[in-house]
Amino acid sequence: xxxxxxxxxxxxxxxxxxxxxxxxxxxxxxxxxxxxxxxxxxxxxxxxxxxxxxxxxxxxxxxxxxxxxxxxxxxxxxxxxxxxxxxxxxxxxxxxxxxxxxxxxxxxxxxxxxxxxxxxxxxxxxxxxxxxxxxxxxxxxxxxxxxxxxxxxxxxxxxxxxxxxxxxxxxxxxxxxxxxxxxxxxxxxxxxxxxxxxxxxxxxxxxxxxxxxxxxxxxxxxxxxxxxxxxxxxxxxxxxxxxxxxxxxxxxxxxxxxxxxxxxxxxxxxxxxxxxxxxxxxxxxxxxxxxxxxxxxxxxxxxxxxxxxxxxxxxxxxxxxxxx
Length: 324
Prior knowledge:
By secondary structure, this protein is an alpha/beta fold. It has helices at residues 12-18, 30-45, 69-80, 102-112, 125-132, 148-162, 180-189, 209-217, 229-232, 252-258, 266-269, 300-319, and strands spanning 58-63, 84-88, 115-120, 137-142, 168-173, 195-200, 222-226, 238-241, 277-279.
């Protein structure tokens, strides 16, 4: 009996040759990011224009650690594009609980979905997944390392509020050591002209040495490190608050000692400029008083909405789809 010929000749190398992932904020050029932000802005203004661009496409959300905003934001983004969603919300509800590797999991997911958003507590897990994946992989946070889609969200928020991504003084406050959103935002913002940072944290939670030396100093970025939030507030265009993350500490005593270092209150907001905006990647614990929510400069819930638009734009880019 002769060999059966496939109905369709498939070159397995073609897909891999052109497939892109987002693992790090620097995976995209400044021009590509500007284009993403432009598309995200258009999605905000004209959502119906994009309502069917991903008809028939599936997004897998592989979340090995808890998340509310990021996971639901990805799901909302794909549903808003007309696609569908499958996946798991914790390692316990996946075969990781049986010992399956990330490499094997992504091979299986590649059989079921067209694109994958992955969050994992170990740094570099998304990179491992991308090496073995047959579909685009989006890093939705890996340990204390990177969180590139939060960075895209932050960039869109800043641009929408301030009208620019250059000539800004940005205050980063709280856990700057383990805060992956902080590390990613610094890496992204240093590519724009005239950016200055004020890094506000206790000594134990200062930015890692590699950020200080290999990013800020190496690129001659103006920055200063302070322990006092009140001192920094009058000079800021953007205040980026972060929580002290209990899950990144090795012992409870250190967490309890540091968790209330900085709490933003209406009284402190009086020290800030009328056009300074407050961002936060969320969730917050108590580092921003709920009374601050009433201040028109409190932009963190608007920031969460921008996250949906920018993830919609990103999914479209990686799947190479666009409105008709």
